[in-house]
Input
Amino acid sequence: MKEYNVKIIKKDYEKIKKLALKAYKRKCYETSFAYIELASHIMTGYQFIDRDKELERLLVKISDEIFERIQGKGNRGKVVIYDYQGLENRGLVWIYAEALVNIGYQVFYITYEEKKGRFHNLERCVISSGGKVYTIKEGSYVSRARQIINFVRQVNPEAIFVHTIPCDIPLLEAIRRFKDIKKYYINLEDHGFQLGLGFMDKIIEFRSYGFYYSRDCRGIDESKLSVLPFYPHKASKEFQGFPFGGNGERFILSGGSTYKIEGSNYYEKIIVELLKTYDDLYFIYAGNGKSEKLDRIISEFPGRAFHIFEREDLNELMKHAFAYVSTYPIGGGLMYQYAASEGKIPLTLQDEKNQISDAKSFLQDTDLEGVVFYKAEDLCNEFKHLYEDRNYRETQEKKIKKTVIGQTEFENGIRQLMEYGTVPYELKEVHLDREYVRQMFFNASSYKTYCRYFLNRKRINLRIVFHFPMYCINSLVYRLRE
Output
């Protein structure tokens, strides 16, 4: 196995950037895009830097050489939502689309053709406003960017809302072409590296952490930042049942991408401790990915511990849960809110330096006790208190429900954003310990996960294979073994 450490990753990153620049100078734009995307994916995973203006400048140069600049203000009352993920029950696209429709906008939705069939309710919402759904066909980076440009030109909106991943090359290439159309970025991941935020007119953060991080670490001008907390969209989906009997059993629900429980053994220890304490307690982890920690828990508690993939009926499953235990060392904001909105306490183990996973920063009542714990033992004791004292649990559940904003409040925020360009919000004090966060992300990764960045399943780039053969070969071997 090749040596794997911070120094090597940073060296690889600089090499990739140089290769991207060389490809640009040869006018091999597709290859340059592939390198830029690879570099961005790596930095998103490791967070060694907060922003890379050199890569952004390179994107600008390529974009200016390929695409013409489009001037002219769009039609008032029309907005485009661009959504890379194309999932109405994940992220924030549904609540933004519904809010814009409810306050009187005609909404047009752009996503990828392969996502068809995943957003029926969202499509009905868009069509009800007089809007339309456009789908992007797979192809080269330039081809996808041109499709986005053409769709936006057809609509000619007054604003574009961007709901995407941290390194969406075709979108970034396309959106720069529209000089006079307002560009709003819905910041889903406010805690780390993202490419192209400087291309946006307004970045919508959802808590104080994102505001301070974008201003102080990413160097985004304060005038471009607004804070608008979100609420969880509850999809109207039929309950799909339990992986066990479903006869009133009490169970812990937890979930999110499995990388969030890597880099520490505390999460596994908490779940094992609780399952050992209560023989009638079950455990469900809902999230994509594989985890040896989850495999060990399932092996130790057969018939009582389960790992299921993401489900569209997540909020229905949450309703039946006894409590929600957050992932550690990295938490999940939307899962906190799903739990709180259903009156389930999002029990959260947190390191004091790790404010990106602070459950209270996603909730409106930051003084509520019995949510965040700095010792695993204290979290387990709180769970036992909830488990054994019904009156206490019911009191806590009533309190937690009040910590999530509602749809009306969110829609008022969107209206203010569109009319006045900002949303009133009382910022809370935040301590940004970026070195701690970087170490945490490195600990949550491995040589195996690092290799996987180099071999894109959809678009294998032979240049990347040529320059980084061992990473690509190992990535292929790991996938074949699985």
